[in-house]
Amino acid sequence: MRITALEIQESADTTYRLFDFNRIDPVTQNKRDLQVQQGIDAITLTQGQQQLNQKQELIEQAVVKTLVDQPPFTLNHWSVRGKSRLTCRQPFTLLVAVAGEIDLNFNGQRLTLTAGTTLLLTPENDYYYLSGHGEFFLAWPHS
């Protein structure tokens, strides 16, 4: 089984280091300090379950599932099985391919998306044309 983690963040003026991959600080030659307790203290959890309004739609030969659509961002999962197209209306949209192989065509250019491919899409193109079989996530911030 393969697990892919996609971390989407909003801007914050405070950052706590919870894990650092055992990296060594080049100045002190020691592992960098972690701020685990401060990170835990900063977490705000709401009581009970939050209701996510997930929806699914078919766009040509792609199943698009909205996983999150509330501030501060929207996150969609695309499963392409043939041809489809997507639009990008936001100042930027993050695309992260996670499975298969999909050709992305725009402005006479072609990129092949395979697992791990990450792109920033911009609204200069009316459409991004897709063909192939694979999956990717799209995320964009709310205005």
From TrEMBL:
Species this chain originates from: Fructobacillus pseudoficulneus
Keyword Isomerase applies: yes
Protein name as catalogued = Phosphohexomutase
Has the keyword Isomerase been applied to this entry? Answer: yes
The source's domain of life comes to Bacteria
Q: Name one GO molecular function term.
A: isomerase activity
Which Pfam families does the record cross-reference, listed alphabetically?
A: MPI_cupin_dom
Q: Which residues form the Mannose-6-phosphate isomerase cupin domain?
A: 65-137
The UniProt keyword set, sorted, is: Isomerase
